[in-house]
Amino acid sequence: MTEAVKREGGWNPLAAIASEELGIRSFVESGKVTTDVQLVRISSVERTLERAYDFGLLIGHTVSRAEHPNTKPSKLACRSEQDQIRAAAKEMIRLR
């Protein structure tokens, strides 16, 4: 799964979220238990999953819009969508 994510270009933001929230610096196993195993708080896992989910929503919305370039939504709907995405992005930044 991680290879597919890396190829799609979404890996760097997800790795950054894991680093910031969980302190994970690398996903390469060293073979040492002291390096490869880490205890984390449940609240940290919850925050990490929420941030990754929000990131996925933003990327999914962007990809969906790019896949349908000939669709002409009303300006009102488009502005509403843009406002929702901006609000979500601001909220994600604020939560950091």
What does this structure look like?
There is one protein chain. The chain has 96 residues and is mostly helical. The chain has one domain (2-95). It has five helices and no strands. It has helices at residues 2-8, 11-22, 33-36, 42-67, 75-95. Helix 2 packs antiparallel against helix 4 (42-67). The longest helix is centred in the middle third of the chain and has 26 residues, at 42-67.
Give descriptors for this structure:
mainly alpha, 5 helices
Brief overview:
This protein is an all-alpha fold and 96 residues long. The protein is 73% helix and 0% strand.
What layout of secondary structure does this protein have?
Blueprint: H1 2-8, H2 11-22, H3 33-36, H4 42-67, H5 75-95
Helix pairs in contact: 2-4
The biggest sheet, with number of strands, parallel, antiparallel or mixed sense and barrel status, is: none
Which percent range fits the helix content?
Answer: over 70%
Structural class: mainly alpha
| Average pLDDT reading | 77
Give the overall shape, derived from the CA principal axes: elongated
Low-confidence stretches: none
Count of individual beta strands: 0
